Amino acid sequence: MKQRRSVRSFSNKPIPQPVIENCIKIAASAPSGANMQPWSFVLVKNKNLKKKIREEAEKVEKIFYTKMVTKEWRNKLEPLSTNFRKPFLEEAPYLICVFAQRYGIDSKGNKVKHYYVNESVGIAVGFLISALHQLGIGTLTYTPAPMTFLSKILKRPVNERLYIILVVGYPKKNNKPPRLKKKKLDELLTTL
Ligand SMILES: Cc1cc2nc3c(=O)[nH]c(=O)nc-3n(C[C@H](O)[C@H](O)[C@H](O)COP(=O)(O)O)c2cc1C
């Protein structure tokens, strides 16, 4: 797991869909508040749809990078060399769009309460990233702001909110993640 790094440059080497589906099954085995499993996954592999998502994402990213980003945030992003262009949204063979269900809907159309939705979906995404990584498959946790455009494109129900887009594929041969420092154990662990 210590070898895992976010990938922003993907090869077009195909990945069989059942491999991805198995990893999503692992994600869906994660613990969740009162076992409500408040998540939905949309697997996007269609080229035209990926192109559309890239176009819409770049529209909001352009506004983010020119108007919304604070100086402090920009400084923090600098080592990552990111900008408004998101070619990986078309390069990668799959985009796994993870939705958080704010509440469930039963067979009669009644609302069902979900508990600890953010925590539960976050853990499931952790499982998903780990499962893919164990197979040598790279991921990028991608969160354009705002993300509402995707719910519209993917025609998701009103109880769902996009949690993240997980960009999935093998890293390009020359992919080199930025040099980043991770905190040492003594900076983050208190043993009592
Ligand atoms: C919740 C979350 C949102 C993120 N959003 C983005 C994003 O929108 N674009 C991006 O390039 N990276 C994004 N990242 C990736 C982080 O920049 C990356 O995890 C961090 O720099 C550490 O690098 P590493 O994953 O290689 O260890 C996100 C990561 C997390 C956990």
Side by side, the strands of the main sheet go 1-2-6-5
Radius of gyration: 18 Å
Range of helix content: 25-40%
The molecules bound to the chains, other than polymers, are: flavin mononucleotide
How would a crystallographer describe the biggest sheet? 4 strands, antiparallel
What would the CATH topology be? NADH Oxidase
Molecular shape = globular
Low-confidence region ranges: none
Count of individual beta strands = 6
Describe this structure in words.
The chain has helices at 17-27, 47-68, 71-77, 88-91, 117-134, 148-153, 185-188; strands spanning 39-44, 94-101, 103-105, 111-113, 138-142, 160-169. The longest helix is centred in the N-terminal third of the chain and has 22 residues, at 47-68. Strands 1-2-6-5 form a four-stranded antiparallel sheet. It has a two-stranded antiparallel ribbon with strand order 3-4. The chain is an alpha+beta fold and 192 residues long. 38% of the residues lie in helices and 18% in strands. It has a single domain (17-188), classed as NADH Oxidase (3-Layer(aba) Sandwich). The two termini are 26 Å apart. The model has no long low-confidence stretch (mean pLDDT 95). The radius of gyration is 18 Å and the shape is globular. Helix 1 (17-27) packs across helix 5. Bound molecules: flavin mononucleotide. Flavin mononucleotide binds at residues 5-6, 8, 80, 82, 140-143, 177, 180.
